[in-house]
Amino acid sequence: MSAVRTGLRRAVGLVLVFTTALCGAAERRAAFDLPADGLDTAMKAFAAQSGRQVIYPTELAQGLKAHRVRGRFTAREALDALLEGTGLSSWEDETTGALAIVRGGWFAVHAPPLQLPPYVVTEDSRAPRWRYAAGPHFEVLSRCGDDVTGQLMSQYYRLHQLLEMILPRRLQFHSDIPTAYLFFTRSGASAISTEILARLQDHEATVAASARPEAKRTAAKLEVSALPNYRFWDQDALSIFFLWEDLDPRGARERLTLTPSYVAYLLQRRTPSLPKWFIQGTLDLYERTRLLTPPATDASYSLYLFEQNPITIQPQVWISPEITQEILKHPNAEVQMPVLGDLFTDEANPDERDDPLRRAETELFLRWVFDRDEPARREALWKFVDRASTGPVTEEIFKACFGARYEVVAAELQGYLRTACAAKITIRPPVPAAISPVELRDATPAEVSRIKGGFNRLEIPYVRELSPGLSAKYIAQARRTLRQSYDDGDRDPRLLAELGLCECDAHDDPAARPFLEAAVDARIVRPRAYYELARIRFAAFRAGAGESKLTSVQLAAVLKPLYLMRGQTPALGEAYDLMGEAWLSSEATPSADQLAALAEGVKHFPRRSRLIFSIALLNAAQGQLAEAGRYVDLGLSVTSDPSERTRYGKLSALIAARRRPK
Question: Which pairing describes strands 224-226 and 114-116: parallel, antiparallel, or unpaired?
Answer without folding.
Answer: parallel
